Write the structure tokens for this entry.
Amino acid sequence: MKFQNKAVLHGIKSSKGEMEGRGYDSTTFHLSVDLGQSSNGESIGVVTRPFKCGDSTEFGKWSHLKNSWPVGGVLCDCEFDIVAGADNSSKVTLLAIKPAPQERKAA
């Protein structure tokens, strides 16, 4: 099931190379995850969770922010897919991500 959601992007990492004869090429987006939605124990605050999306060329779409990355991250519009696993679990996959349009304040 596909769904849209907003999330705060805290970091991006590009990985490309070869290990033991196998090539790899991906971009990982680190998005905020609310610990309050955890099913086990108590928690406070927010952590990031890595989501792979696209190959290393995806990183290039964000590289202009390298020297001006906001401390609090970037609010993004995300498209996710969630599928049920065989063991009663679910898997969430990031399908697309882009910066959310900035709201303009009235002057």
Observations:
- Helices lie at 57-60.
